[in-house]
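Aim 2 progress update. The chain analyzed this quarter is reproduced below.
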Amino acid sequence: MEVNVESTLKCEPNDAQIHYLSYVLLYEIDAIEFLKKEDYKNALEEVKAAIKIVPTFEYSRLLAEILESISEYNEALTILEKAIEKYPEQKQNIESVLNRIQKANIKYCKLPPGNLRTHIDPKEREEYLKYYNWIKQQGITTERLDLQYFNDSYRGLVAKQNIHKGDLLLKVPRDAMITLKIVRASPICAKLIELKTTLIYKNNSLISVFALTELRNDKSQWQLFFKAFPKSADSFPTYFTPNELKLLEGSLFLGK
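Predicted structure tokens:
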């Protein structure tokens, strides 16, 4: 449903106000009907349309709760925080909802709460949340796996249900892949190839150059991906101590 702005502008001031409010009421009724059917996507659109006309605190709260229902916690928190800034007198009324969504956001993103790991850097937590949302925006899915943040130098995927032969574990759209073709086509790597620069590990070196360049490029599609990399490589097998390697005796890894 769309508001007919042209017909509204032709109305008298009081009539125009009634006209607008009528549309808002219709948006609200439609949203409630969609919510009854658990059609959150359409309910979301109706409430967003209502907010454009009458940006009230109640609509902001409703929008945040709908976003909570579809696990869009980060967006829900942003809306609530902006609503509290605009309507500070409503902070007490919204505090329980805000706390609930914050807890759900931490659990959903698998980030340890601050009281369990007080040494986690708040800035790093924020960057990781951005990365987590970037994964979803890219259309990357991990239906049977959970992305987890174990510590500052270790992230990983863990199974959240039994995995059987033939199960799809990870789906990455081609547009979200960093391929050697993309690396070689980047300006700096293309220049290195053109100059026939001597590289000991040619492809690996080009990928490293690409990663460092994209990390510093604020307009890069991949910046959030590279920013999420651990700051240290202590958990990388290349840096395992002799005692740690001893624990891997009998595995195929030692032969690599």
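The first strand starts at residue 145 and ends at 151. DSSP finds twelve helices and two strands in the chain. These observations will guide the mutagenesis experiments scheduled for the next reporting period.
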